[in-house]
Specification:
Layout: E1 5-11, H1 16-34, E2 39-45, H2 50-56, E3 62-65, E4 68-72, H3 77-90
Parallel strand pairs: 1-2
Antiparallel strand pairs: 1-3, 3-4
Amino acid sequence: MPKPVSLRLLTKPGCHLCDEARGVVERVCAEALADGIETVLDERDILSDPALARRHSEDIPVLFIGEKRHAVWRVDPERLRAALDRAARRRPLSRRPGNGGSP
């Protein structure tokens, strides 16, 4: 079974662009799941991490797919879906106990 595509969304409270980005990400991830692409979304409030707040104070929201920055300020749904499709093709298979391996 393929590992889920990992997404990280950096946000802060009261940020209307963050709310919009979250909605786009959730919608696109739901569509991807319907097509068999599992995702895991980790949303982080930059105000709870001083290093993130210093680095991204003016660049919010920021969306990462894996470790690669995908979007800043606005998330384009078509571009995100294409990136999820590409990331899904590159995912390694997760090893489950008793599933494969030596006899």
